[in-house]
Amino acid sequence: MIAQGFDACARTSDEARRSCLAGAQSDYANALGKCANVSDPSARKACQDQAVADLKDAQQTCQAEFVVRQTACQKLGPAPYDPVINPANFVARIDNPYFPLRPGTTFIYGGQMPEGFERDEFAVTHNTRVILGVTCVEVHDSGRNSLSTMPRTLRKPSASPKSSPCALARSIIA
Question: Is this prediction's pTM over 0.85?
Answer without folding.
Answer: no
